[in-house]
Amino acid sequence: MSLLIGPDVNARAARVLRVVALGERLAEEGARLQATLARHPRMARFLRHQASQEQLHAFAFEAGIRYLAPKADPAELPGIKALNQFRERLLADLEQGRLAESLVGLQMVLEGIAMEVLSRLRLDLARNGARFEPLRRRLLRQEESHHAFGAVWLPRMAAEGRTDRERLRAATGEYLLLGNAVLEGCGELFADFGAPLARYREALRQALPEWLREGTA
Q1: Maximum distance among all alpha carbons in the chain?
Q2: Which of 15, 119, 136, 214 is deepest in the core (most CB within 10 A)?
Q3: Which domains does the chain have, with CATH numbers?
Q4: pTM for the full model?
């Protein structure tokens, strides 16, 4: 099922993109800070590149908002408040040097949300939105690569003794709670997805590596 953007398709599309754009800004900020903590040059290089990509993603979505609905109501969704709480947790991990836990939050959970939304969002159903479809597909591929990066590096960091799997599982449960709050706060935007919100929460969980989601509900 795809998101069928409601009666006022452009305004509804703009509200979806507003949440996504803020998530991209958070991903940019987080990846830049992660790069300063990375010990491996290849890891730091990827994270700097990810930050640059996230910045471009945010620019693209912000431009889409202005194009689709320049006079859209800027009223804050509950999902934005939840996203700010997610940011507080992510920055706390980074400030304490907990790079591995931050990878769980950013690359695994936040990018998982982005993948879920981008895989279902149908901007071509909005007036003049079809021109954004190729861009949407490209951004989805990039988000998938960021998610895969986290899945590769987390077990490697555990094997190097820089973290352990139990700590990572605990962080996963905490970040999933925050991520689910973001999804629930955007419930009205999921109204036309064609499935209960619980299905999207479970899709977010199932996108995680099996060892990482053990013990999470």
Answers
A1: 53
A2: 15
A3: 9-213 (1.20.1260.10)
A4: 0.88
